Amino acid sequence: ALMITDECINCDVCEPECPNGAIYQGEEIYQINPGLCTECVGHFNNPQCQDVCPVACIPHDPDRVESHDQLYQKYLQIMLVK
Ligand code: SF4
Ligand code: SF4
Asked: Could you tell me which residue ranges the 4Fe-4S ferredoxin-type domain spans (predicted)?
């Protein structure tokens, strides 16, 4: 999963780009629900939020490193419950 750092300026452009609805407004900055972030696997070739963030504050979460296959399995699970 990706994560949003405290460099976030709350510009709001990433939230509507997420195909999984994983991005939400937290108490101070935007946040990513790691249970819903597939790093855009299943939808796009590259993370859509990273593409639009004007301050590049959406890195990979070092505590949540996932393989492409794990991300794809997460995508399938999300599609099942939708
Ligand atoms: Fe959503 Fe994709 Fe960004 Fe993850 S990488 S938060 S799935 S837009
Ligand atoms: Fe924050 Fe970047 Fe999302 Fe804007 S695009 S709300 S700066 S994480």
From this structure: 1-28
Spatial contact of 78 and 37, defined as CB atoms under 8 Å apart: no
Q: For residues 82 and 31, what is the distance between their CA atoms, to the nearest angstrom? A: 21
**Could you report the predicted ipTM of this complex, rounded to two decimals?**
0.98
- Segment 31-69, tens digit of pLDDT: 999 999 999 999 999 999 999 999 999 999 999 999 999
Instruction: Kindly report the CATH number assigned to the domain that includes residue 28.
Output: 3.30.70.20
Query: Domain total for the chain?
Result: 1
What single letter denotes the amino acid at residue 75? Y
Q: Atom 3 (ligand 1): residue with closest C-alpha? A: 49
Which protein residues touch ligand 2 with a CB less than 6 Å away? 4, 8-14, 30, 52-53, 55, 57-58
